[in-house]
Amino acid sequence: MPALVEIARALVLLLVPLAAWRLGFSYSDWAALALVALGVAIWLGVYRPRLSRRRAELEVVVIPGSALGHWFTGRMGAGLTAGASVLVGVPVLAWVALRSPPLVIAVLLALCVVAGLLSQWAIRVLGRSLTPPFARVMGHGIGSTVAALLALLPLVWLNWAVIAVPHEITSVGLSEAVAAQIAQLPPRAGWLREGLGLFAALDGAKLWLAAQHREALWVGLIFSVDAALVSFVVARSFVAVMEFGRLISGRDE
Amino acid sequence: MKRQHLFARSFWAVIGLLAVIVIGLSVLAAMRDHPVVARIIPPAPREIPQSRIEAMIRDAGEAAYQAQAARLDQLLAAAYAPVYAGIPSYAEFHYSVLGEYTELGSAALGQMGDAMESRLFPDLAAGLGKVADDLDAGFLASFTARLDQQIQTELQGAGAGIALGDVTRSIQQDAINRVAITAPVAVAMTVAAKPAIKAVAATMAKKMATKVASKAAAKGAVKATGIGGGAATGAAVCSPGGPIASVICGAGAAAVIWFGADAAIVNIDEYFNRDDFETELHGMIDQNHAEVKARLLAMLNEKRVATEDFTFSQAASGD
Q1: What backbone torsions phi and psi does residue A165 show, to the nearest 5 degrees?
Q2: In terms of domain of life, where is this protein from (chain A) (predicted)?
C-alpha cells in the first residue's frame, strides 16, 4: 500500500506541472515556469540517492582527515548526473506532453506505474544484500530500465500500426515537411518556440525520411523503435520524481 | 530538518497552485460558451485537435473524389462527342472510291494511323486536356468547400463568434495548397493524351489496313475478268480506225470498267457493311473512352490518396 501511495504522489508531482504546461503553452511562454517545478523534482530525485551512494564509496576510498578529503565530497558527480537528467528529461517530457497522441500518453502513464512498482520491488530485493545507498540507485536503474523495455513493445506497435502519417508528407521536400511541423507550434516569437522548433524539426525530418522509404519494412520499424525510445527517459524521470516525493514527504532516510 | 520541511511545504504549495491553474483553465475552457464567462473573457480562437482536422482533410478528399468521379462521364461525353459525331462522315469517306484509294495509299505508306487520327480525333487531345483541367479545378473546389464546411460546423459547435485558431488555419491552408499542386490530372493527361490517341488510331488503322488490303485483292480478281473483256471489246469497236485507235479505245474502256467496277463494288459493300463498319468504329472508340475514363479515375484517386493517412505497417504491406 505505501508503494501505491508513493506512486500516486509521484504521478501528481509529474502530471500537474506537465498539465499546466500543456494547457498554458497555447496562451503564453510563461507556461514554461511549470516545468521549473518538474526540473527541481528530477534534479533532487537524482541528486540525493547518487550523492548517498557516492559518499558511501568515498568513505571506503578516501582516508579520513586527509588533505584531499575536503574536495572529494561526491557532490560534483551527483550534481552532473542530476543536471544531465534534467537537461534530457524536462525537454523530452515537455515535448511528449505537448505532442503525443492520447494512446501514447496512456501507455506512458502505465509505464510510470510499472516503473514505480518495479523500482520499489528491486530496491526491496537488493536491500537484502546491499546497503541502502547502493540498493536505491541500482533499484531505480533496474526498475526503470525493465519497465521501459516492457513499454517498448506497445509503443513500437502504436507507432508502427496505429499512429497515422499524413500521406502528403510523401509528396513534399524535407524543408517543407520540417516547416509544416514547426507551423503547428503557436505562432509567437520567443526562445521557447525556437527551442521547441528544434524538436519539431527533428520529428519532421525523421518522419519525412521514413515516409520516403515507407515500403521498406525495416525503415518503418527503425522509425517506430526510435519513437518508442522515449520510454527510457520517461521511466527514469518518473523514478526520480518518485524519489523526490519520498524526500519531501520525510521518508528519505 | 526544519528547512527540509519548509521546502517540502513550499513545493507542495507550488504544486497546489499549478493544480488550481490547471483546474481553472479546464473549467474556463469548458464554460467558455457560457454568456457570463464569454463577457469576462473574449472567446479564444478555436484550435481543432490534429487528429480531428486530419480526419476532416481525409473526408474532404473522399468527397472531392466522389464529386469529380460523378461528373467524369458528363465531361468525357462532351470531349468525345465530336469523335462519335465524326463516325458517319468517316464512313462516308471510307465508302467512296476516293476514300478507298486514299486509305489504300496511306496503308501502303504506313501512314494510315496519322490519317485516321486527323480525320476521327482532331480535337480529342484538346478536349481531354480541358477535362483534366476541369477535374483539377473541381477537385480543389470540392475539397476546399467540404473542408471549410466541416470547420465551420466545428466552430459553430464551439460557440458563436469563435474564430479559427492560427495553427488550425495554417493546417487548413497547407492542405488546400497541397491539393492544388499534388498529382495534377492536367499534367498527367497532357503527357498521356496524345500517345493514347496515337495508340488507338494506330490500332484502328491496323485493323482497317488489313480490311482495305483484302478488299482490294478480292476486287482485283473480279475486275481483271471485266477489264480483259472490256478492253478487247473496246479495241474491236475501234479497230476500223487503225491499231492506235484500237489501243486507245481498249485502254479507255478498261479504265471506265476499272473505276466503274470500283464504284459499284464500293456501293454494294456500303449497302451490306456500312452499319457493321460504323458499329465497329463505335466499339473501338468506346474502348478508348473506357480506357481514358479508367486512367482519369486512377489520377483522381491519386489525388484522393494524397489527402489520406497511412501507417508504416500498411505501407510496408503495400495496402
Answers
A1: -110, 130
A2: Bacteria
Find, among A89, A100, A98, A105, the residue nearest to A240 by Cα: A89
Q: Which residues on chain A are in Cβ contact (under 8 Å) with B175?
A: 168
Note whether A160 contacts B: Cβ–Cβ < 8 A.
yes
**What ipTM was predicted for this assembly?**
0.83
- Give the three-state DSSP class for B164: strand
Interval A71-84: pLDDT, tens: 888 899 999 999 99
Name the residue ranges covered by the structural domains of chain A: 2-165+214-248
How is residue B69 written as a grid cell?
468521379
Between B232 and A102, residue with greater pLDDT:
A102
The HSE-up count of residue B36 (CA atoms within 13 Å, CB side) is 3
Q: Helix (H, G, I), strand (E, B), or coil: what is residue B245?
A: helix
**B312, A161: Cβ pair inside 8 Å?**
yes
Residues in contact with A173: Cβ distance below 8 Å, sequence separation at least 6, in sequence order: none
Contact by Cβ (8 Å): B289, B76: yes
Q: Where are the domains of chain B?
A: 12-42, 49-211+273-307
Using one digit for the tens of pLDDT, what is the confidence trace for B150-199? Answer: 998 888 777 666 778 877 887 888 888 878 877 777 777 777 777 777 77
Under 8 Å between Cβ of A214 and B310: yes
Amino acid of residue A241:
V
